[in-house]
């Protein structure tokens, strides 16, 4: 997720106006769950400060600090003093709907949630026999099945003894899949459920796909001011204190946060989510993008299929490309993003000069400065000066 995680943990990356883990929390609440333990580490203050005690969501939230990242089984060990009954455990960097969460709370045995994928590279896969999981392969080079571990579990208290015996893996971590295999080997039944709504958010471009999905379900809500002469079509949310000035043309689904200054004469296209305290100015066009809080895009700029971090300022005439001439998928460091259209991923506190050009698939590290008329592509290091 770099450069987006330079100042915030992965689970606090915004999707459709909310941190990704808030969407997961909301779906858990819809499924009837009320008591949560969040295992935090990197920039834990961002999570604690946002969620507090959980009362704003009708939930009770407690926190466990994993001081050093040492694997999922280690994280669960840290939380055991707060878990004296059966429980559901979920990875924080996934999207899942209540319809897939609720059935887990009715399980009788430890249960893994699975998804069937064409490509399971880098994922744990399982072998089944009847109604049970019999073997787990963690990130193997030659996976024997396409049934991937989705990072969504129901655990009975049988897990406690297995956690105590879980060794450190060859990767140097305590893997929850090793814990589960120990349970299986000890004769503890481990069932499975297939998921229907799962989405993994492993890379920055996955945020764009998730953003599109969640925006598709919003309804119009206008809490700010819309001047005469502005045009709003489709579902558009406008937060309190925001103003949409005359000549602005907005086609939803679009979310605009609080205290934003939009327009005049700008064009916001579907799939765009704009954070709080942003300025989108004259002759600016934004399409299918995530613009984080306190960012300014004031003049004559195009941004498409991109993620722009907090506190950025794009100079007049900055242009972001989002389509290859050969129409093939965008690639980043040789990795296929699976997206035919993709712009740039820009970290926090980045500034561009007038008429800067940013090629598709460019990653710009936090604090970088892209000078007037500069053309950039590839991966730009944090704090770099391209003049």
Automatic annotation (TrEMBL):
It is an enzyme of class 2 (transferase). Pathway: Nucleotide-sugar biosynthesis; UDP-N-acetyl-alpha-D-glucosamine biosynthesis; N-acetyl-alpha-D-glucosamine 1-phosphate from alpha-D-glucosamine 6-phosphate (route II): step 2/2; Nucleotide-sugar biosynthesis; UDP-N-acetyl-alpha-D-glucosamine biosynthesis; UDP-N-acetyl-alpha-D-glucosamine from N-acetyl-alpha-D-glucosamine 1-phosphate: step 1/1. Residues 1-215 form the Nucleotidyl transferase domain. Gene3D superfamilies: Hexapeptide repeat proteins, Spore Coat Polysaccharide Biosynthesis Protein SpsA, Chain A. Keywords: Acyltransferase, Multifunctional enzyme, Nucleotidyltransferase, Transferase. It comes from the Bacteria. GO terms for biological process: UDP-N-acetylglucosamine biosynthetic process. Transmembrane segments: none annotated. It catalyses: alpha-D-glucosamine 1-phosphate + acetyl-CoA = N-acetyl-alpha-D-glucosamine 1-phosphate + CoA + H(+); N-acetyl-alpha-D-glucosamine 1-phosphate + UTP + H(+) = UDP-N-acetyl-alpha-D-glucosamine + diphosphate. The keyword Nucleotide-binding does not apply. GO terms for molecular function: glucosamine-1-phosphate N-acetyltransferase activity; UDP-N-acetylglucosamine diphosphorylase activity. Its EC number is 2.3.1.157, 2.7.7.23. InterPro entries: Bifunctiontional_GlmU_arc-type, GlmU-like, GMPPB_C, NTP_transferase_dom, Nucleotide-diphossugar_trans, Trimer_LpxA-like_sf. Residues 250-353 form the Mannose-1-phosphate guanyltransferase C-terminal domain. In the N-terminal section; belongs to the N-acetylglucosamine-1-phosphate uridyltransferase family. PANTHER family: N-ACETYLMURAMATE ALPHA-1-PHOSPHATE URIDYLYLTRANSFERASE, NUCLEOTIDYL TRANSFERASE. This is Bifunctional UDP-N-acetylglucosamine pyrophosphorylase / Glucosamine-1-phosphate N-acetyltransferase.
